[in-house]
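Rrf2 family transcriptional regulator
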Amino acid sequence: MRISAKADYAVRAALQLAAAAEAEPLKAEAIAAAQDIPHKFLEGILNDMRRGGLVLSRRGGNGGYRLARSAESITVADVIRVVDGPLVSVRGVRPPELSYTGPAESLLPLWIALRANVREVLDGVTLADLAASELPAAVSALADEPEAWTNP
């Protein structure tokens, strides 16, 4: 699985908004500066997130962006799906829509298992978890494995 720059920027922007949940709305310029995200690219991402129901925007001098719901109710998977689409696809196709024959038949359950594991991690971590630096125990256990930090 590859996390796109767009998805990375979207999660970082969402975390910036989560950290400012009770404050005034944040301007895109402030989010871009705080997270070192190209401003124009961020504007498109914030629009995708607005259309996807994750952020609200307000125009004007006191305008800006804020989360549309609590950080506890928005998962990392929600953010990625809004900006990039399905979490796991093969050649742009969702795994259940694939079919293989012969020795490749066992690929389908492999792709389904991969998708299930990606979902388990990304649907199990909320913006509030990340903003508080408190990953769920199962995710922390995966990250604590020494092999997780090496590139084979």
